[in-house]
Amino acid sequence: MTRKIRLTDTVIDYLSIEEARRRPGLRLVLGAYTVPGPWREACKGIFHVKGIPYASVSTADPGRADGEFGMAGADSQLRDWTGQSSAPVAIWNDEKPCSTWIEQLQLAERLAPTPSLLPQGVDERALTFGLCHELAGRDGFGWTRRIGMIHDNLAGLADDHPSRAFWQHMAAKYGYTPDSGAAASARLAGIVRAFARRIEAQRDAGRRYLVGDRLSAVDIHWACFVGMISPMDEERCPMASSFRASYTNPYPEVQAALSPLLLEHRDFVYETHLELPVRF
């Protein structure tokens, strides 16, 4: 029987930002909530594969909730420390905070060169960066899926619905327009089709991974980002019940593009390389 999972049903021990700023070593600002944001999960996954220990950090100011997602200035300390308002952020000692996926990946490669998540060959390395960008970059899969979520919720919620303020907040953060929302499904489908072609070509060549013949950053990113249209079951991903519907694909065009091999690959990467169940 499906249980109701609250946004606050976390199991990780999170430091406050004030506590984290006093600590040396690696700290990951993740946010203390049971939402499998793909940037967050990919960042966790990269450092997990590398075997690099880190302290998890909340996002909200004292007396505020991480589940406010920065609304009404709830994240002023995060802004002061990192110069921006999103999670995840990776901070190593007193170095500049790494708030983008590529900075986080490069930090992990520097701290633990082995196992490398980037191919040695230039062509395959460039392909890995390009595919990761299609998932995690601006206007990529994750960004576009958020735009689609915003579009669908603003269209479907009454003006006085209590959740409307959150989606309006997200609309401002992601630069949403009705036109971008209407175009989201086609853009998502194009990206998914490209990954379907990629996994099929790799399987035909007798290879198990998306690039080359071993795990790379793009495998981790795909495993985490596909959860925005097909989340794992509650046993493997005990996410907030209130968010599961938003993380389920509503677009027939995207569903048609989603090869079963891509979901098999997600399962293989999690079962072989990442943490299960997902911990929040």
UniProtKB/TrEMBL annotation:
One of its GO terms (molecular function) is transferase activity. Keywords: Transferase. InterPro entries: Glutathione-S-Trfase_C_sf. This is Glutathione S-transferase. The keyword Transferase applies.
